[in-house]
Amino acid sequence: MTTETPRRQPTLDEVAERAGVSRSAASRVINNAPHVSRAKREAVRRAVDDLGYVPNATARALATQQAGSVVLAISGDDPAMFADPFFAEVVVGVNSVLEETELELMLSLATSSRGQARLEQLLRTRQADGVMLMSLHGDDPLATLAANASVPVVFGGRPLNFEPPYYVDADNRGGARLATEHLVKAGRRRIATITGRLDEGAGMARLQGFQDALAVAGLDNTLIENGEFREDGGATAMTRLLDEAPDLDAVFIASDQMAIGALRVLARAGRDVPGDVSIVGFNDITSARHTDPPLTTVNQPIHALGREMARMLLALMSGDQPSPLILPTQLVIRSSV
Amino acid sequence: MTTETPRRQPTLDEVAERAGVSRSAASRVINNAPHVSRAKREAVRRAVDDLGYVPNATARALATQQAGSVVLAISGDDPAMFADPFFAEVVVGVNSVLEETELELMLSLATSSRGQARLEQLLRTRQADGVMLMSLHGDDPLATLAANASVPVVFGGRPLNFEPPYYVDADNRGGARLATEHLVKAGRRRIATITGRLDEGAGMARLQGFQDALAVAGLDNTLIENGEFREDGGATAMTRLLDEAPDLDAVFIASDQMAIGALRVLARAGRDVPGDVSIVGFNDITSARHTDPPLTTVNQPIHALGREMARMLLALMSGDQPSPLILPTQLVIRSSV
DNA sequence: TGGTCGGCTGGAAGCGCTCCCAGTTTCTGC
DNA sequence: GCAGAAACTGGGAGCGCTTCCAGCCGACCA
When you count CB atoms within 10 A of the terminal residue's CB, does the N or C end of chain A come out lower? Predict the structure, then answer.
């Protein structure tokens, strides 16, 4: 009902006409290409301003065969997995570098098989110029898909069974070793671990780091329970551990989430932390600061992970061949050891 | 070095040729349009399979003038704001309905002015068919942009100063009232509040709910400090409150994040929770379960918020005129009251 | 003064798909 | 067995932009 006409966006032709030049010339000035005289260049700019012209991204994409967007794909079998704050922070990291470019960010939660099919579609239809692929586990079909995708792919984390050409990962193994060594140095001798999903690279690497450290210290490294990276999994794993080895005096837990569950079990069992048993977690989520007691844990640079993935993808897209990157992890000492 | 040719994707023309039909016919069967004989239809399908044809989304977008994607835009002045797990869950909700469609999800963290410009661009270039816009605060320029965007816009939460035609929001005011009433029922009489940012709709609504409840109860409702929705803000606000009104016996805190900060201050000040002072938070983040004591708080259906935003946008895009939606909030009783 | 060179310039051919339209075929009902 | 309707069919014109290319023109050198 307003007087506003539902005016279409002006096209390049209209700009050209108004500026009194050919469409080619107009296109050149829009794209800062050479071979256009100063006078025409300015005429075109003026016309652009007057008309409020904005190039149509779709048409441009069709003509240049470049989508102008990249996708961040989170693969996994649990639809709600993305709710993990971990990913949110990765996204912020990714965004921080994409912001400097003209690229748009698409998000693909390839969680159902339908989701995976769509991601595949997305790539085959060339709606995106590159992919960042996270959290492949086990025999994720996406791994192969990625391998022979026609666009650059960088992995976030390394899948099991397969070393991708381009990836950025956190030093999970090193971090786990650090954590476990910390326990050893604190004088603990009967040290267990609660693992994450062992069909994920991170889960396995943390277990290995744990075993590395105990092997070096000459301690038993077979007290292992799986908690699947979930809080309740951590709780039940802790229960089993207490059954199996009532004399344990420390446990390295492969995620803070699980540590929270374990802490609850420990409290209920009347074990004092860190008096009776020391705990160290992994990830350094914000909650880790507010557990009782505050959790000693391993921090991984999540923001940097996202940032570096994006940088690597950009490099790849511009024809470089970047090397894989492993980001350092760091022990954060609080009060649970 | 493999024998794989870097084969381009086949085009519709190739499909048509192989099937021995016209491009128009091929297009019709791809799009399940009528007016194509059974025989040709099958020939085309076969050709599609043989060739592994996938329609080029960009070309289709250009021809149909539909991008095939929607954007979820998070506006705000803090680049890291998105790291709030709140948004992650919204994304999951949004995704759950988009997954059923052919629409792709683009994410726009319109945090810097550059980010905002890009979002504006995104819309003007029609790279997206619709927008979900979240977390406008104060005089966010995006509000007006959204208002006269040429694509449907649904708001997540209501901005201040402006009631958008289409939005889904949580019942912040009602939730805050619930929380405060709970405090009153528990026999508390000297009740304060720590507010969130008052230039955001949610922050203001929660303050109003607080005041509503106390007005009804005939209690003083002027014990107010601002915590800006941040943890440290909650801490300093609590400190000020303790100064101002050492006799307070309860505080409604507009976010769990801030409540965590406040709890720390309270503990340090030697006040027992809930013995000396009762606390209720807002949001029901996962950490709320692990504070000391576990936090009584108001749960808002974040996943549903995302889901309903997406549904509303879909409705809008298909020409309907959905009504705004206010999702119920719910008191979650734990041990801090 | 003639010849060259190199930077302008605009025409035109796509990019891959949709969809209108006019022409052809095949069915109906009588 | 025939008119008229209904269903198919393929040609062609776009969607808005990029980019190749051939033609120009003025400048510059000998």
Answer: N
